[in-house]
Amino acid sequence: MTQPWYSTCDSRMAFMELVFEDWRIRSYRPEDLAALLRYAGERAVSVQLRDRFPYPYTHEAGEEWLRRMAEQQPETDFAIATGSHLIGGIGLELRDDVERGSAEVGYWLGQPFWGRGIATAALQAFCGWAFSHFGLVRLQACVFESNPASGRVLEKSGFRLEGRLRQAVLKEGRRMDMLVYGLLKPTG
Ligand SMILES: CC(C)(COP(=O)(O)OP(=O)(O)OC[C@H]1O[C@@H](n2cnc3c(N)ncnc32)[C@H](O)[C@@H]1OP(=O)(O)O)[C@@H](O)C(=O)NCCC(=O)NCCS
């Protein structure tokens, strides 16, 4: 993997862009709406995500998301994009209290882009940035047992399967286990 290239990302006034291979992780833009509706609206995407990721993904939901992203501080959610348009999303939920210094990572890609290694490359680049930008020591990801592709993305990115929360998820009427993966900040 080529080393990602970072541009400025120190304040919400600056535009974050992290270039990896032929792709980018960058701040959301108002003009992302059409691609967001098209790709986030696929049921194959939402079925693997928490219910707060809406389905159907309405025009209002897309506008509201981009409005929130324009004001998000600190900026923790980003588009995965080609040079010209959005193809997915990646983000972090920073933990606090005794879990300070750790965060949960989440990601999705539009279905036409699956199976090309993009999520793995994006996650690797994003984790490197997140560890140093937020001073984190640990990242974790929660995967439904129905989602082996995401488990594979995490394993290819160095995450370890740490636990199985039995019957922790109820998604679209199906009760299932949640798999917890963890990655510690590399030392040295
Ligand atoms: C999960 C997701 C991000 C993967 O994106 P992607 O760009 O296709 O991932 P990659 O190409 O980097 O890697 C996918 C890996 O999973 C494997 N895979 C795909 N389907 C699989 C399946 N049903 N069982 C086992 N492995 C599978 C692929 O073979 C590949 O592994 P390999 O490189 O060893 O062959 C994408 O499918 C997605 O957005 N899904 C919906 C949202 C989602 O699940 N988000 C994550 C929530 S935890």
Account of the 3D structure:
With 188 residues, the chain is an alpha+beta fold. The chain has a single domain, classed as Gcn5-related N-acetyltransferase (GNAT) (Aminopeptidase). Helices cover 27% and strands 33% of the residues. It is built from 5 helices and 9 strands. Strands 1-2-3-4-5-6-7-9-8 form a 9-stranded mixed beta sheet, with helices on both faces. A hairpin with a 7-residue loop joins strand 5 and strand 6. The longest helix is centred in the last third of the chain and has 17 residues. The two termini are 19 Å apart. The protein binds coenzyme A. The site of coenzyme A has 21 residues, from strand 6, helix 4, strand 7 and helix 5.
Which keywords apply here?
Aminopeptidase; 188 residues; globular; 5 helices; single chain; alpha+beta; binds coenzyme A; 9-stranded mixed beta sheet
Ions and ligands: coenzyme A
**N-to-C SSE series?**
EEEHHHEEEHEHEE
Strand content: 25-35%
Unreliable runs: 1-12
- Bin the helical content: 25-40%
> Can you tell me the CATH class?
Alpha Beta
Average pLDDT, rounded to a whole number, is 94
Counting copies of identical and different chains, the oligomeric state is single chain
Q: Rg from C-alpha positions?
A: 16 Å
Overall strand count: 9
Q: Going by CATH, what is the homologous superfamily?
A: Gcn5-related N-acetyltransferase (GNAT)
Taking the alpha carbons of the first and last residues, their distance comes to 19 Å
> Judging from the principal axes of the Cα atoms, what is the shape?
globular
The main sheet orders its strands as: 1-2-3-4-5-6-7-9-8
Number of helices: 5
Largest sheet: 9 strands, mixed
CATH fold assignment = Aminopeptidase
Structural class: alpha+beta
CATH 2nd-level architecture: 3-Layer(aba) Sandwich
Domain unit count: 1
